[in-house]
Amino acid sequence: MSGEARLVYDDALTRYDFGRGHPMSPIRVQLTIRLAEQLGIFDHLPVVPAPVASDELLRTVHTAEYVEAVKRASADPDVPDLDHGLGSDDTYNFAGMHEVSAQIAGASVEAARSVWEGEVLHAANIVGGLHHAMPNRASGFCVYNDPAVAIQWLLDNGAERVAYVDVDVHHGDGVQEVFYNDPRVLTVSLHESPTTLFPGTGSSGEIGGPDARGSAINVPLPPGTGDSGWLRAFHAIVPDAIKAFQPSILVTQHGCDSHVEDPLAHLTKTVDGQRAAYLALHDLAHQVCDGKWVATGGGGYAIIDVVPRAWSHLLAIVAGKPIDPQTDVPAAWREEVQIRFGRVAPMRMTDGRDPEYVDWSTGYNPDAWLDRSIKASRDISFPFLGLDPTY
């Protein structure tokens, strides 16, 4: 049973804006908030302000040199600093970049704090999930790594074990890098194969550093994987791994760029499959962590047709009031999309798919790329968690 929940958000977070033409448009966040409002989600999900992370807090994950580099780029965005990934082809500099990036990190830490200190069971920061940022370098549209900063805060404040599950289509490389040799943190990432998609990492053989073997689990998925295959992989790996690790709290990243309409990747999930994953993670938090769950956003570049619906489903699940997929998209929201963007918005909160899957226990098909990938991840990672990898 769900308890109280909250969203950490204010409109200032939409200043995380790389400018016209960049795929990561703040419009996706604005439209999500408007849709969630009109669906009545905030009747059950109080919204609290997002604090700005201090330099000291940022330096628990990022180097002091890097924080100063971000400040310089923020003050003078016309000067690139490619040694730190700033002003690169994907992570542009913009005025105020340090301040809003620090506020996104602060929002994820506040979400983690409110759950860890017992104020709520679940908390979310949908503007967060900037999982590619490295300790000394920006990458993949990500300046500060807010999930990593939040996880480090949890560790510094008494959490003995933290599990991080990343369902973005891109490998959660930055979070993995930060905690790769820390046995207190289990990172699990399901993503498109590194042979076909940025950042080119996340093979099943990446299992953690010498002091933390088995603390990283990667499940690279073939291009074209849809709801049934994705959910088959998820349920073959994630529940067993999380239950074996027994974390104190669950932190999740919910990039929705695994959708078939996303322009930057090659999976074929639907909003219905994404919703099923969110429900499964919510249930897992209750089964293993007494409900302690921190959810962030992430990627997602079909900014009108996909992101607002997917993340509204996520927020409703965080609130403990899931939305029926057959729910009509509010007419006022659809009208706003028509007026602002000249687009016909989706009619319902579903893509009309039933996200069924065949459970791994039914057998393994060695001729299927998907099954070979699942088996490799289980074979390599499960023994470190005391699990039998056979089905």
From TrEMBL:
Signal peptide per UniProt: none
Any Pfam family the entry gives: Hist_deacetyl
Single GO term (MF): histone deacetylase activity
Region described as Disordered: 197-218
InterPro entries reported for this sequence: AcuC (IPR003085), HDACs (IPR000286), His_deacetylse_dom (IPR023801), His_deacetylse_dom_sf (IPR037138), Ureohydrolase_dom_sf (IPR023696)
Pathway the protein contributes to: Ketone degradation; acetoin degradation
Lineage top rank: taxon: Bacteria
Record bears the keyword rRNA-binding: no
GO terms, biological process: acetoin catabolic process; epigenetic regulation of gene expression
Ranges for domain Histone deacetylase: 22-316
Gene3D superfamilies documented for this protein: Histone deacetylase domain (3.40.800.20)
UniProt keyword annotations, A-Z: Acetoin catabolism
Family indicated by similarity: Belongs to the histone deacetylase family.
UniProt-recorded name of the protein: Acetoin utilization protein AcuC
Species of the source: Kribbella antibiotica
Upper lineage: Bacteria, Bacillati, Actinomycetota, Actinomycetes, Propionibacteriales
